[in-house]
Automatic annotation (TrEMBL):
One of its GO terms (molecular function) is hydrolase activity. This is Alpha/beta hydrolase. GO terms for cellular component: membrane. The keyword Hydrolase applies. Pfam families: Abhydrolase_1 (PF00561).
Length: 254
């Protein structure tokens, strides 16, 4: 475990595997933590040998959880950019799952010097409508913040199941709620539009049975759409071999 102070008393932490450059930076989804989700894939023979940083975004996993932070997508991206700069990394390969994919897109748009390429793992790219009882960010964002902090968090934790709960219970409640609200609200321009306008190599991994909407337009904008079989939303866990192969085989050099 390593750490860097991004502002006085606030640290982002990560688990690092040494190796060759360029580094790969792995970003988790909402309520998750990077090492539990990516460690097996990082060690896979197709991906091993590269410097790999399994980063926990502010408010999640082993990183600090300041209650005064906005936890917007832009805030996450800017905090990550500060951390990467202090580590001394430029032009890394960024691999982001779900919400982490949205943060990766915003990072590339706001801090292009930090990003060599993007691998987006079933990412959020469009705004969504909050709805009580809906899975993930939509259900969390349907609460008011006070209600979520007082009782909604425990209800969500109970409903998500043991795997997700194992990392979600590590999240700061304000971090989880505010990140979910901003994720369903999206950015302006949208994450999809930002993604289509980026100039770095971009790969969009999706479960074989759940192709992304607007795939034709994404492909026309230069985004590689890659289907991974035998996987649900957590592609890197459900099909480690397929995930590693998909990442290793992409044209990510510039």
């Amino acid at each position: 475990m390593r750490a860097v102070e991004i502002r006085p008393g606030v640290r982002i932490r990560w688990v690092e595997v040494p190796g060759a450059s360029p580094a790969r930076v792995y970003l988790h989804g909402l309520g998750a933590s990077s090492a539990p989700y990516y460690a097996e894939a990082v060690a896979h023979p197709l991906l091993a040998g590269r410097r790999s940083l399994m980063m926990d975004l502010l408010g999640f996993g082993i990183s600090d959880r300041p209650t005064g932070f906005a936890y917007s997508l832009e805030g996450h991206a800017d905090a990550l950019a500060v951390a990467l700069a202090k580590i001394g990394l430029r032009r890394s390969e960024i691999i982001g799952h779900s919400m982490g994919g949205a943060v990766a897109i915003v990072l590339a748009a706001r801090h292009p010097e930090m990003v060599r390429s993007l691998v987006l793992v079933d990412p959020h790219v469009d705004p969504a409508t909050p709805a009580l009882g809906a899975p993930g960010s939509r259900g969390i964002a349907a609460y008011g913040e006070a209600d979520f902090l007082s009782h909604g968090f425990e209800r969500v934790l109970r409903d998500v199941g043991p795997h997700w709960a194992a990392t979600m219970r590590m999240a700061g409640r304000e971090a989880l709620y505010r990140s979910a609200v901003d994720l369903v609200r999206g950015t302006s321009p949208t994450m999809r539009k930002l993604l289509m306008e980026l100039e770095v190599p971009r790969v969009f991994l999706h479960p074989e049975e759940a192709p992304p909407s607007g795939a034709r337009e994404l492909t026309a904008a230069g985004v590689q759409i890659v289907s991974v079989p035998n996987a649900g939303h957590n592609i890197m866990i459900d099909n480690v071999e397929g995930f590693a192969r998909a990442v290793a085989q992409q044209r990510l050099s510039v």
